[in-house]
Amino acid sequence: MDRSVLTRSAPEPDRTLRYGDAPEHVADAWLPGAARHPLLVFIHGGYWTPEYDRTHTRPLATALREDGWPVVSIEYRRVPGKPDDLVADVRAALAELPGQLGAREVVLAGHSAGGHLALWASSVCPPPGLLGTLALAPVADLMLAHRLGLGDGAVAAFLGGPPDERADLDPVRMAAPERPVVLVHGAEDGLPVAVSESYVDTHPVAKLVVVPDAAHFEVIDPLSAAWPAVTTELAGLAALSS
């Protein structure tokens, strides 16, 4: 599995925004000189743990900026056993940040645990002007991910216990989002494609794209062979613009 994107150097953001008072209530923005696409709000992954922050999204955000996408990559509190604080941060960021950038239309995206959060938000608190959601290798079914022991028990660590009683945080057990949803998942991902398949089985209006020969991090790596699949699906969501 190629993890090089996690530590690859990339340009600093053009701006850093705030959406609350906590140190984590920040977001980095990459702003093209002439935007050709709607605002992309990106939620980073890392199994909801403090070990991973938004820094590793810089290669992705830089590449998308070069393609004409304004990108804002949000940070959020990541304290094991306090999921409600985390999702409150995502809710607040989505309510606040697009307006700070004057965005009228938004594409929401996230990777891994961030993909889970993007799917959650698209059902519960979609940002104004949401066109659609792109979930990259998402933890789309918390019950299944917990049964599979993914991330050495990451789901239970995030929730503070097993997911049985938290259907309100489990995308596969929530109402389908009103706007289109696309999941992109590498065929060789250690977070199995079955987790995304479970979501699409429950919400058949969602679209699943399985990328051959791709593992977990290729779908956020602009240097990977999987990247064109990601940009193609983003372009499709952007085309829903009125």
From TrEMBL:
InterPro entries: AB_hydrolase_3, AB_hydrolase_fold, GDXG_lipolytic_enzyme. The keyword Cell wall biogenesis/degradation does not apply. GO terms for molecular function: hydrolase activity. It holds the Pfam family Abhydrolase_3. SUPFAM superfamilies: alpha/beta-Hydrolases (SSF53474). Residues 40-122 form the Alpha/beta hydrolase fold-3 domain. Gene3D superfamilies: alpha/beta hydrolase (3.40.50.1820). It comes from the Bacteria. Keywords: Hydrolase. PANTHER family: AB HYDROLASE SUPERFAMILY PROTEIN C4A8.06C, KYNURENINE FORMAMIDASE. This is Alpha/beta hydrolase. It comes from Prauserella endophytica.
